[in-house]
Amino acid sequence: MGQSLHDELIDHVAAGLTPAQVIALATAGAARFIGEDDWGTLTVGKRADLLLLDANPLVDIRNTASIRGVMARGVWYAPSKLIKRAGSHDAPPAVAAADVPKDAKVRMHVEWNGMSFGDEYVAAEGRRVRSVGRLIAYKNEGLSTNPPITVRSDISLGADGAAVKVELTSETPDGHEQLVLTRSDGHVTASRRAPGYEPDETTYDVPAEALLGRATTPLYIQLVERASKLAVGKAVDVDVLGPGFPPDYEIDVMRYHLERVADEAGERRYRFVATRPNSMYTGLIAARDGTLVRVEFDSRPSELARAPLAAGRPIAPPVIARRIDV
Predict the structure, then answer these.
(1) How many other CB atoms are found less than 10 A from the CB of residue 186?
(2) pLDDT exceeds 70 at position 301
């Protein structure tokens, strides 16, 4: 959001609100609006996300731009460090050759509006699926994170083809995240280590048919399998337990509503709506001969994606992940 957020704060004060009211709306009010309770106020137990300012914004709302430093999930960043970090990743993100699985057969190249957002490689052998990606994280807005993040998946499958253990890791500006999901006796146990959180272990009751993982290539391969028998016009709901993507460290259920639409150029196409408590996005999955070939993520502001008129024309080109055989 950058400077536009500061401009909006000024506009709201010019419209008659006090600086205190505007700040409350942009912080605690924003958290309440999207139904989240782990940020928005400086409270013990909530996420340590805050700005340190050089001047009092209650005196002049323009002082919100006088930033001494930023704390994100308990990690302190000085402006000089952020500026240096933002300017050091002009080259398209790429997976280091040493990190690419030797038996990788699939590469998904991600781009938005002609700009490379990176690649993810996938290897499958027997009952094990592994992936590694170096990506600029994307959202419905078409916005990106900078610098790129590294995400890895290591999935162990049971005899029925369902995941019995999923290990997910990511390297982001916040630090290193590790999440292990283990299915046993009708439950899923999640062990998590992430910046700003104490290590914890939680048990979830999810249906046996629910998938495990995050919204990267291995998941979309499984969604194609789940939707493969749909006739045109028919739909299926698939629940996925895991963290959000871009990594938000919150473990929850994402529900994919998949509807098969008309085939095009020999491809089976599925429109999807993916929802979880703190986000929603839409897009299209394309497959050929039962194999994932493309995922398109619609670009439109989240508040529009939630609205009844969300079926309207996207306001920007989609983010596209396209399959390239290795």
Answers:
(1) 9
(2) no
11 C-beta neighbours (distance < 10 Å), count: 12
268-283 b/e with 16+ CB inside 10 Å = b? bbbbbbbbbeebbbbb
- pTM value is 0.69
d(CA 117, CA 145): 10
Ordered domains of the chain (ranges, CATH): 3-86 (2.30.40), 97-325 (no CATH)
Could you tell me where the beta strands, DSSP code E, fall in 94-186? 106-112, 115-125, 128-135, 149-157, 163-172, 175-184
State both tokens at 189: 């146990």
Mean pLDDT lowest among 18-27, 66-75, 98-107, 271-280: 66-75
For residue 253, what are its two tokens? Answer: 């259920």
Distance CA 291, CA 40 (A): 43
**In Å, how far from its chain's centre is CA 109?**
17
Phi, psi angles (nearest 5°) of residue 5: -65, -45
Contact of 167 with 179, CB cutoff 8 Å: yes
Please give the distance of CA 167 from its chain centroid, rounded to a whole number.
17
Q: How many Å separate Cα 128 from the centre of its chain?
A: 24
Q: What 3-state DSSP class applies to 143?
A: coil
Radius of gyration of the chain (CA): 21
